[in-house]
Structure formats: structure tokens, C-alpha cells
Amino acid sequence: MNIENLFIKNITLDEDFDYKALYNDSRGAGYKEEYKSLIRGAIRNKAITVEKFLITESVQEQLYKISETRGHEYTLIGRLKGYPNESDYMVAPFVYLLKELDPQFTLNNNEGKLEIESNVFDLEICPRIDGKNATPRIFFPKEKVAIASTNDNIENLGDILAVKDVKVYIIGTDDRSNSIYAYKIKREDKFFEVAKGFKDHVTDELFE
Q1: 145 with 3: CB under 8 angstroms?
Q2: What sign does the dihedral 50-152-169-176 (CA atoms) show?
Q3: DSSP 3-state of 20
Q4: 185: pLDDT confidence band, cut at 50, 70 and 90?
Q5: CA-based radius of gyration for the chain
Q6: Helices 72-80 and 60-68 meet at what angle, rounded to 10?
Q7: Residue 12: half-sphere exposure toward Cβ, Cα within 13 Å
Q8: Confidence (pTM)
Q9: Number of neighbours of residue 62 by Cβ within 10 angstroms
Q10: What percent of the chain has pLDDT over 70?
């Protein structure tokens, strides 16, 4: 299973790329400013590099249909949410992604527990991959691939990025949900060195 097989093309980012595109800046977090400083400094000093890819276009109607489904698929939508009041439409791209990876995957309700069966991938939904706070929407344990949302808060994003030996992608849509994009995030060793225990002392200068 390789998520990059779904990518249609690379999209060149502007030199003044705004890191706020990677998360929802309107959402609160206990260490919001500290995490923003960490991510901003890491990108500026190339401890983090970002690539953007197009996954699909003209998908607005398909996402709407996914968000309107019921039954097991609606249960899946609920489990993919980062918080209870998150719009169904915001998590529909993740269901679309799974269907593209394996059109034959099935959902079963086993004694109240939703089970996903696929011959293509094994996955975990919203696990804590660091045993604490880092919670991607989807995690493929065999490939060690974590997929987050551009609607996550900055603290969750920072925690996910701080998990070493995990590939990180962030999924989002354009403003009208016509296209689905993936941001591929690469981190250098110096990022992990600074990210470890940074809450008490992180500043932009730590990367200088």
C-alpha cells in the first residue's frame, strides 16, 4: 500500500508558503503559540520541508454523497472525526481516500465495534501513535504512515510530527471542496532534537 500512488501531480508551493495551511488556526490548543513557534521555525530553517500534491479534482459531489450516507459508513465518518462537532463533510475526504486505496474494503459491526476489512491495507483510526497525544485520523502500522487533517489543531499536528520513523501526510480540500490535496511533511533529525520536550523552552532561535 502506497498512498502516493493516488497522487496526480506535484503542486509547486510559493516561497512565502504559509504554514497555517497545514492546520486549522481557529481551533484552540493548550500550547498553541509554542507549537506555532516550533512549526514556523522548523519550516523557516528547513528542519521541516513541505510538498503539496493533488489527489483528485471535481470531487465535490462525491464528498457530499459520502457525508450523506448512513449505516456502517456513517459510523466510520463518526470515528474519523477529530472532535464531536466536526462537520461530516470535513472527514469525507478520508473515506474517499480509503475507497481509492481499496474499492473493495468492507465495514462490519462486531458487537458494537466497527471493523474494517481489506486485502490492501491494515489501518487504525485515530490511534495515539506516541502513546500520549499524537492522534492522526488514519494510521497504517505496517507502512508507518500517519495521515492528519488540515482541520486538526496545531498541537495535534506538532505531536504527530514529533513521532520519529513515521511518514506524515496531511489531507485537505480547497475552499469549495472541488479538489483534495495532500501535504507530504519531511522532518530532519534536528527537528526531533528540538521537538523533544520543547514545551517549556521552544523559541524560533532554537533552530538557528
Answers
A1: yes
A2: negative
A3: helix
A4: very high
A5: 17
A6: 110
A7: 2
A8: 0.90
A9: 17
A10: 93
Model confidence over 7-45: pLDDT tens digits? Answer: 999 999 987 789 999 999 887 777 788 888 899 999 999
Task: Supply the DSSP string of 97-160, one letter for each residue.
Answer: HHHHH-TT-EEEEETTEEEEE-SS---EES--TTSSS---SEEETTTTEEEEETTS-HHHHHHH
Cα dihedral angle (87, 89, 91, 93), rounded to 10 degrees? -170
pLDDT tier, 200 (very low <50, low <70, confident <90, very high otherwise): very low
Per DSSP, the residues of 51-112 read EEEEEESS-HHHHHHHHH--THHHHHHHHH-SSTT--HHHHHHHHHHHHHH-TT-EEEEETT
Task: Tell me if residue 186 falls in helix, strand or coil.
Answer: strand
CB atoms within 10 A of CB 118: 15
Question: Residue 181: CA atoms inside 13 Å, Cβ hemisphere, count?
Answer: 22
Determine the angle formed by the axes of helices 32-44 and 154-161, rounding to 10 degrees: 50
**Residue 139 in grid coordinates:** 494510521
Q: Give pLDDT tens digits for 65-117.
A: 888 877 777 888 989 998 888 988 899 999 999 999 999 998 887 766 778 89
Cell numbers for 198 = 520543547
Max Cα distance, the chain (Å): 54
What's at 12, amino acid-wise? T
